[in-house]
């Protein structure tokens, strides 16, 4: 996508003073930024929507500091939002999932920019310490240079030869493998499937596993980040938020069972996995003592925003610096509201099914 016209438009509007005006108009709104993984190798090329270079995130933090955006701890920001006592343009920084790269590269960033940060950590792969299955499968297909894949003996897909130059066919078979692995295999079976797939695609799975670039932090690494002042919060155990009440309580309980002994405190803030939720589930969160829950819906938050439906801006490697400034200043938010008034953009929904990971 050619972003040059959009970025030029933003730059023009900034020069006209419209960013500064938007900042004043949205000063009472809470900004919540969302990040996922710091790239330690080629992850930002494999999935720029999830992985960002440390240099890019460093430039974002510099923008926050230079722009005098007050960065608040999550809990403090939520309380101030409800009481109407937010400082102008208050901002919260969040990271989803708990990727190892955030520990390896993040510790340096946290020391360089000692800003309050919240990590929403999903814990199944913290306990397993293997590459996240669906990412590993997608990465293997992305990484291979082979022209075809023989499917005989691979579970969940029809036999035959897959032309790896056909993007639609590759995507269909890839997701058949992922769905089969996630629904029909245990973790050992998923690892075995990845190893066999990697062999057929000519990619070194053992090197991928050793790099940990598609894996999560260990218990000790989470404890270390908490010792640096990072706020660790809930993201469910298996990275899912099912429609069944008992399953939701189990996901939260299992997530807490891993995290809270490390922290010696309760975890009471939640991030919906992939942004998937239903408003009918909110009473279940109340029962669990959850104070707030963040979504993947884009936008800012006012006193009227439901505490279980907090909006965020999902930053990524493909977001230009001027686009990031437009979000921080509130200019993009005002444009979204204007488009909704004109009927050209739907209002934020109560349930956004973001890309699963």
Give a verbal description of the structure.
The protein is an alpha/beta fold and 357 residues long. The protein folds into 2 domains: 4-128 and 215-341, Glycoside hydrolase/deacetylase (TIM Barrel, Alpha-Beta Barrel); 133-211. Helix content is 48%, strand content 11%. The strands form 4 sheets. It has a 5-stranded parallel beta sheet with strand order 8-5-4-1-11. The protein has a two-stranded parallel ribbon with strand order 2-3. A two-stranded antiparallel ribbon has the order 6-7. Helix 2 runs parallel beside helix 15 (321-329), helix 4 runs parallel beside helix 15 (321-329) and helix 12 (219-227) packs across helix 13. The radius of gyration is 21 Å and the shape is globular.
Distance between the termini: 23 Å
The helix-and-strand class reads alpha/beta
Cα gyration radius (Å): 21 Å
Discrete helix count: 16
Overall 3D shape: globular
How many strands, which pairing sense, and closed or not: the largest β-sheet?
5 strands, parallel
Mean model confidence by pLDDT = 94
Order of strands in the sheet with most strands: 8-5-4-1-11
Strand portion: 5-15%
CATH superfamily of the largest domain: Glycoside hydrolase/deacetylase
| SSE pattern | HHEEHEHHEHEHHEEHHHHEHEHEEHH
Fill in the keyword field for this structure.
disordered C terminus, 357 residues, globular, five-stranded parallel beta sheet, alpha/beta, 2 domains, 48% helix, TIM Barrel, 16 helices, two-stranded parallel sheet
